[in-house]
Amino acid sequence: MGEVNYAPIIQEMTWSYSRIKAFDDCHYRWYLQYIRRLHGKDMFFASYGSFMHKLIELYYKEDKSAKQLCEMYLRDFRSQVVGWAPSKTVFGNYFKSGLQYLKGIQPFPYNMVAIEKRVDFNLSGIPFIGYIDFLGEKRWRLVCRRQQIQKLETEKHTQ
Questions:
Q1: Is the pLDDT of residue 29 over 90?
Q2: Average pLDDT value for the chain
Q3: Which residues make Cβ contacts (< 8 Å) with residue 41, sequence separation at least 6?
Q4: Residue 28: which region, alpha, beta or left (left: phi > 0; alpha: psi -120 to 50)?
Q5: What is the torsion angle, in degrees rounded to the nearest 10, for the CA atoms of residue 75, residue 55, residue 85 and residue 15?
Q6: Residue 77: pLDDT above 60?
Q7: Inter-CA distances, 132 with 143, 145, 147, 159, Å
Q8: Which residues on neighbouring strands pair with residue 138, listed in sequence order?
Q9: Torsion of CA 39, 90, 129, 25, to 10 degrees
Q10: Closest CA to 102 of 131, 130, 137, 76
Q11: Which site among 47, 60, 71, 123 is 20 to 30 Å from 12 CA-CA?
């Protein structure tokens, strides 16, 4: 049996932060997910991040208050954050830090231009996709900001 050439599959890929991070975390899991296209259970960290970004987007786009975001967080956490955290400690830390973040959320001192703005670009002919968390403007200058949701130093996240 000969070697399998995965180059055509890889050359057709659009790369993203999560795709690169998945490769960096575990080459075999990346192979299963992006080459073999086998998808396992929903992952805790990905669904947590998506849920938090959704709430932050509501803060900016729909003028939800910190109190409203916290109520939504507490009500919807279990249904929106799926999969298993590596430990009860990690789960608890993420739950508490998300709530703390939303309790203290403050608007950026810029005029909002876009939230969760999709950006498609090429680097040396390789297609990439990314998302800008917050794009603002102040004094004719554009500012990109990243929402720093998770600042915890926890055990290495393996899924």
A1: no
A2: 85
A3: 82, 83, 84
A4: alpha
A5: 150
A6: yes
A7: 10, 7, 9, 25
A8: 141
A9: -70
A10: 76
A11: 47
HEC string of the chain? CCCCCCHHHHHCCCECHHHHHHHHHCHHHHHHHHHCCCCCCCCHHHHHHHHHHHHHHHHHHCCCCHHHHHHHHHHHHHHHCCCCCCCHHHHHHHHHHHHHHHHCCCCCCCEEEEEEEEEEEEECCEEEEEEEEEEEEECCEEEEECCCCCCCCCCCCCC
Q: How far is CA 93 from the centre of its chain?
A: 17
Measured CA to CA, the distance from residue 17 to residue 104 in angstroms comes to 27
User: HEC profile for 24-62?
Assistant: HHCHHHHHHHHHCCCCCCCCHHHHHHHHHHHHHHHHHHC
- Write out the two tokens for 2: 């000969």
Give the span between the Cα atoms of 128 and 145, in whole angstroms: 19
Burial class (CB in 10 A: 0-12, 13-18, 19+), 98: buried
Query: Residues, the chain, total?
Result: 159
CB-CB contact of 61 with 120 (8 Å)? no
pLDDT tens per residue, range 115-128: 888 899 999 999 99
